[in-house]
Design brief:
Chain lengths: ~475, ~475
Amino acid sequence: MLRPWHTILPIDFGNELAVYQQIADGIIAEIKKGRLRPGTPLPGSRVLADDIGVNRKTVVLAYEALIAEGWLETTGKRGTFVSGELPRFKNEPPRTGSSFGFNDYHTIQPMQGSVTANLIAFNDGLPDVRLAPMEELARAYKRIFKQKARWRMLGYGSEKGEERLRLALTAMLSHKRGMNVHHNDICITRGSQMALYLTAHTLISNGDTVAMESPGYLPAWQTFGKAGAKLVPIKVDDKGMVIEELEQLCKSRRIKAVYVTPHHQFPTAVSMKVERRLKLIELSNRYGFAIIEDDYDHEFHFEAKSLLPLASNAHAANVIYISSLSKLVAPAVRIGYVTGPAAFIQSLASLRSIIDRQGDTIMEQAIAELMEEGAINRHAKRAFGIYGERRELMDQYLTTHLSKRVTYQKPEGGLAFWVRFNQPVDTEELRGKLLKKGVSIMSTERFSFTGEPLNALRLGYASLTQTELEEGIKTIATVVKR
Amino acid sequence: MLRPWHTILPIDFGNELAVYQQIADGIIAEIKKGRLRPGTPLPGSRVLADDIGVNRKTVVLAYEALIAEGWLETTGKRGTFVSGELPRFKNEPPRTGSSFGFNDYHTIQPMQGSVTANLIAFNDGLPDVRLAPMEELARAYKRIFKQKARWRMLGYGSEKGEERLRLALTAMLSHKRGMNVHHNDICITRGSQMALYLTAHTLISNGDTVAMESPGYLPAWQTFGKAGAKLVPIKVDDKGMVIEELEQLCKSRRIKAVYVTPHHQFPTAVSMKVERRLKLIELSNRYGFAIIEDDYDHEFHFEAKSLLPLASNAHAANVIYISSLSKLVAPAVRIGYVTGPAAFIQSLASLRSIIDRQGDTIMEQAIAELMEEGAINRHAKRAFGIYGERRELMDQYLTTHLSKRVTYQKPEGGLAFWVRFNQPVDTEELRGKLLKKGVSIMSTERFSFTGEPLNALRLGYASLTQTELEEGIKTIATVVKR
């Protein structure tokens, strides 16, 4: 130890850190650097205090702290020493990089975003965040923060979510979707993605077979795959999942579950026809497999039909029903939910408790408030009207500008069109070309689980205004025609 | 079909459901009940319209909807029939109970709640929600909802969490905890529980050995166990985890990770001594295992010591550091975070994207706002002062009323005391007796992973006022003395 202490421990009296703390920190730094070695004696408190220009009591305080923490030790009157119990570092270079291995989840493809600056973005079928009921949401949060029992909501709550919101959902499911659900058999989740994750991990044992729509929803494919399921793609045609193919599969092996998006199939936007629905329920009862019904945008069904969920059918005993308010309010409002047999939901909620303990109580209360006062309904009606118009415009522009190149069915509902090219088109190349012209489309190949090229586009229209829609479709037409 | 149509389809013109929809719903109900069978002809639209007293066009609309959906079919001029493709239900009783099996997570013990009405509750060591910075939080939410870019935050965001909050955390970790972390190497989670879950599932392959503190934190034990780890309990003494025992384990088998709560060990409240800390880091580097450092209530350290996290040590290359703002703000404000080697955090964030896609953007923005403006710091100082006083009171009341029955160390920090009985006490029986007298304590046996009785209590004091603390300790003393 050659340097004087006041150069080693420069005290900054303007620092917010207490002076004794600065001294202690400085000594620790010297120990870590190896300049103060185990057994090295420290100067007496008076000597050090004089040297660095502080009160002696301050040094005593620092020494006491370091002794209590084990950096220093004192042997009665002999003085204070650097602790002998410190393991010596073998001059290894600091932070040489970690040496433990871990599971690589990089292969999981993230869901694609909704808002891209200065681009006309045909997304996956997301709502227009510009229409989100922001004022209503802000007011609901404000009221929630002012309510009498506000302290209560800041503690821990039920892992199934706020009872108030579960009751509001129960009423909505009964009135609008013909579903008779007890609020204890609902688990509120963070968006439908968490409902999928919880369902997969509650349902699947390693190696279980799950039948999936193909083309289909990649995040579901990934979620069930990572949960250990063996995935079997089942074809989708213009009536929805081909149930005959599923029946063949059931005859050849035991299947654990079927994942379906019957209301508006993802990505083809087809609504599953009623005979397929009834047949699916019949198969589920006969073979004892679960139907995972993902009803991700129930509200936006534009054709004149009473299309109720599978889960509303009196004979459907094996349906796990997943839905969400995220598509209705905004993607960031991650309120999804899952209902199903009571014991299943109970187990799923227990799993949830070790994932994130509980949902966002404050947000759940705010959304319950909006449902109770009818604001969600009013917003749904308004959005329904606007998206309905945009759907008509989309239909019109596709017919005007692209009818010779593509085939499509105007979808009965949902927020996207499924547009198939009449001639083979490299959709990835198309995507690159369009991006240069300020139009973004989603990658189609993620929807294909069989490797078969889909030669189609899923064009979400709900986030685009009339001008953007026309401009976007025109641009696609120009690029495709070349 | 004997009954007249107007009794089968009673139209309610005051109903919010359109009349054609009511007709369609009624026909579907008859089909489902089996009273209208496949192939049955329906009356002509004019006949039905007259019978039920509606406009003919309304009936046509209903028929069209049912045809499009597949319930009915039409064969040109022959008329309209119930669709022949409907599978007949074999008069099975509806909803006979589900027939699929699933994983049973009921064994997961939920974390225990914080607020219990009319009870003096010694909890696990939770903050006092009555002190939560409610006004500040409400104002932050309000500002967030008014900001210019508010629409943007309603779309999808980064699975690592809002960059703004990650930057605020980076600054805090650097200033207060001596940690040099890049904001891309932080993943914000929903409380430290999700950080634990993500860490476990990113780190563990089936059968990996994880060393755990014993007694220890049950939710961590359950989380690593459910992730497939083989768990080995390591003793904890008055210097923290007994690292010599860990070293013996390392010599006998390969271990993947060690889970530690070095700042304030859960449940014993011991702060790990520095020689143990350095030895732990040395072992981690030598044997290549990960150190999972759960620093769940860093802010509340009352003794005069520079006790920085293991993660701040320049030689600690294998530390996965988990912390949280939930203990600082309120349990319902579920903002936790995890940092570690860049590639590890990247993989962990990918896993997160299939669990719930992303965090609560609105809450993350609000908390970032509070950190930036210093409100979190001000709240921390205020809470620190109040909890510090309560800690002194707790010490005083324990000495006054229970010193003959118990042994304890006044903890250097954390929001709970670990109180050991001098004589064997059935703590579960004690719990029952106390409950009858209006005092609740946590079950101690959940902390023991070896089956050994702990003969101790973890008494969280921070949520109780002076009166409640004195009353609570007195009651415990009365019951124990009998």
